Amino acid sequence: MDFTFSEEQEMFRAMFRDFSAKEIAPQAEELDHEEKPALGALRKAAQQGFLGATLPEEYFGAELDYTSYAMLIETLAADSVSTAVTLATHVSLVAMSILNHGTPEQREEWLPLLAAGEVIGAFALTEPDAGSDVQAVATRATPDGDQVTLDGVKTWVANGEIAGLFLVFAQGAEGMDAYLVPQDTPGLTVGYREPTLGLRSATFNTLYLEGCRVSEANRLGQPGEGGSIAQQAQDRMAVALAAAGLGVSENAIQVAAQYATERVQFGVPIAQKQAIQGYIAEAKIEVEALRYLVYHAAWLVDQRGDYGFDASVVKAFGARVARSVTNRMVQVMGGYGYMEDYPMARKYRDARALHIIGGPTELHDFQIAQRIFADLDMDIAP
Amino acid sequence: MDFTFSPEHIALRRMIREFAENEVAPIAAEIDRDHQVPMETMRKLGQVGLLGVCFPQEYGGMGAGEMGYCILMEEINRVCTSTGTNVGAHIGIGAMAIYLDGNDEQKRRYLIPLARGEQFAAFGLTESGAGSDAAAIRTRAVREGDSWILDGGKVFITNGGYADVVTVMAVTDPALGARGGITAFIVETDWEGFKVAREEDKMGIRGTSTAELVFEELRVPHENVLGKVGEGFVTFMKSLDMGRLTLGAACIGGAEMALESAVRWAKTRRQFGAELASKQAIQWKIADIATELEALRSLVYRVAWLVDTGQPFSQLAAMCKLYGSEVASRAIDIALQIHGGLGFSRDFPLERGFRDARIGEIYEGTSEVQRIVIASNIFREHGVRIRP
User: Fold this and answer.
1) 3-class secondary structure, B347
2) For residue B226, what is the enclosing H or E element?
3) Residues A103 and A133 in one domain
4) Is residue A13, in this structure, part of any structural domain at all?
5) Gap from B93 CA to chain A (nearest CA, Å)
6) For residue B57, what are the contacts with CB-CB under 8 A and spacing of at least 6?
7) CA dist A274 to A149, A211, A237, B161, B258, Å?
8) Are residues A202 and A232 in the same domain?
9) Which of B126, B271, B366 shows the shortest C-beta gap to A132?
């Protein structure tokens, strides 16, 4: 066992911090209030190689291991959970699916564009009647010679509004298929943007597929492999979202602790009050526990084994920690925690998303229980 | 023991619910989106007598007691926390201070138009350096002949941007501090020297005004001293006791709304071939909200009864606010979670409820202040004086 980060990883962290402080932090507040994606920062991130963070150099990626990538997400989320989620959708859900399941042609076509940020990736799985229950996906993929016609409606499509490429899941003849659908494909329409509680500079859209024809060559993986592609993508995303939860929680503690040293009530800085100390200590304990879960899970991703169970554990815990830490840090700041002129209200709204996106906590709880009972030879139903 | 509401209170609740459904609910999303205080609704509440619900008829009130006022707060907050907050700041603390400690002349002049909704009130206590530590206020009042000259300012004043009357706490004798050195004044907001400096941009209760007030050589006639000179702190604390109870009542409304919508959605939404209501993870959450809600309801209406029968209630009022705000936050959080993505969308009321509920643990005395109050009372009975 070795709990240290390598020298290289520490160097990356310093670089990520620099980047985030310069490109993300200064405009995070404003973009949230105006509900605009951080397009400028994403372009800068592409120049740094972050949009191809985990892609090999042959595709112009930065070839980071997943641990360093988790560090990137953690660092960005400290300043903007929206931007961290946007980047994680692009890298973990879309680019890495193509890397892991794509043909050489698909990789060569899309990965350099994704790494350069010339194309942003979006992930289209959820439907009005298929949230936690992915098997209920009703979008159809109908073969037609060497073409396939996609018909259906997707909701909560992350990066929908800014994407050039959609990873779309649809029911084909042999089960669920995955397709790479360029944004300008006739029959594809990006619709309604969800007005969200938090993550307001990320975009979640409805996607309409009406007689949307793509070549069979756009299918990612084998027929019927879509379910497994989606699951693996979501496992990677679960680790990234937990890293985002870690980043926002750590930063919330820093901001609130700083405030506690400056805010004087009853003649002393409130940092001198045991109740405040307790809030901060409990939050810190949760954050430290989360940190090791996150980096353990990220390390497992790099080992290329089955880490689905650990992904659920870290995602469920990350969501709980981010929710409870930001909630307490709002409390430390009192009225100032509730004002939108200060960053804590945004962190609190953003953190709440982590219980829902990437599969609600209830679903992860179920998957964890499912594994435990499977080891006891019992199948459980959701 | 008798745990039933009187026929009058049952009729009152029916009338308020109808008003809330017809007048308040339809615009709740809009006033949140547009950051708009619903002035027309506030005036209508006054016209039908509800803004005087707890005050005696001789002062333009309805005479329905604290019980009636808690029913009002529960029912309004069930559909709109912003409107409930406007009402609470106006009646529960703003006008209440005048009702509790005003003389007959002051009540006739101020309370009657407030009870009728012809004028609106705010409660001016918090300052930038005096939040939980209310006694640390610095707004100064200096006697000058028949007047007092006020200099200073207040922050986070609910209704501050549109109130006609603000009850203001100021230091009249810095040497004495909270015990004898602070006085309450009734201030009319169109007097020279009174200024609304800014409106806050808040996470929730966006259909309310939270303002910073500035006083510059603001001249207040001596007859507008509320209560006795030097006893302002006591006046304000009495009002806050009442306010805490009624915020507990407000939280019943918020938690009820959450429970109702969670049940409705769990009944409708199907995943994995069955409605969510069939899942134990969902059932347990519903059971927890319902249990806490019933405990809160019993506590709040018991304390309302204590107030109306003239018994001590201060300690239990702090518990109403502490427990109520935490129950409402938990209930909304659970309801939002059961709705999944829809809960996270501003197209559905839970998103607003989530932002709105969070203020409950902060305003009118944070949860930490309530715990200090409760613990102090307990230790005082055991002969120990604790400091915050």
Assistant:
1) coil
2) strand B225-226
3) no
4) yes
5) 18
6) B63
7) 63, 63, 38, 36, 33
8) no
9) B271
What mean pLDDT is predicted for residues B123-142? 95
Q: Which residue among B131, B281, B354 places its CB closest to the CB of A362?
A: B281
B275 part of the active site: no
Chosen domain end from A225, A243, A278: A225
* CATH code (residue A108): 1.10.540.10
Contacts of A126 in chain B (CB under 8 A): 341
Task: Judge whether B349 and B253 are in contact, CB under 8 Å.
Answer: no
The mean per-residue pLDDT over the stretch A247-258 comes to 98
What ipTM does this complex have? 0.90
Domain that holds residue A170: 121-225
Residue A321's pLDDT is what? 98
Which helix (H) or strand (E) segment is B63 a member of?
Answer: none
Are A163 and A207 in a shared domain? yes
- Do residues A126 and A110 both lie within one domain? no
Give a three-class secondary structure readout of B97-144. Answer: HHHHHCCHHHHHHHHHHHHCCCCCEEEECCECCECCCHHHCCCEEEEE
What is the CB neighbour count within 10 angstroms for residue A246? 30
Distance CA A343, CA B359 (A): 16
Chosen for mutation from A196, A197, A368 (greatest number of chain B CBs closer than 10 Å) is: A197
pLDDT at A293 over 90: yes
* Tokens describing residue B155: 């922050």
A305-326 pLDDT, tens digit per residue, is 889 999 999 999 999 999 999 9
* Record: contact B337-A155, CB cut-off 8 A: no
Of the candidates B197, B229, B261, which is a domain's last residue?
Answer: B229
In angstroms, rounded to a whole number, what is the distance separating the alpha carbons of residues B379 and B384? 5
Q: What average pLDDT score do residues A368-379 get?
A: 96
Report phi then psi at A85, rounded to 5: -70, -40
**Residues A226/A232, Cβ–Cβ less than 8 Å:** no
Condensed to tens digits (0 to 9), the pLDDT of residues A92-106 reads 999 999 999 999 999
CA distance to B13, B135, B152, B220, per residue, from B142 (Å): 46, 18, 12, 10
Which segments of chain B does DSSP mark as H helices, in order?
7-19, 28-34, 39-47, 65-79, 81-87, 96-101, 104-106, 112-115, 232-268, 280-308, 314-339, 349-357, 367-381
**pLDDT value of residue B388:** 81
Number of domains chain A is built from: 3
Q: What is the pLDDT of residues A122-176, one digit of tens each?
A: 999 999 998 888 889 999 999 999 999 999 999 999 999 999 999 999 999 999 9
Q: Which of B200, B345, B355 sits opposite A339 (nearest CB)?
A: B200
Antiparallel, parallel or unpaired: β B274-275 and B147-158: unpaired
The domain that holds B187 is classified in CATH as 2.40.110.10
Write down which residue in B181, B200, B229 finishes a domain. B229
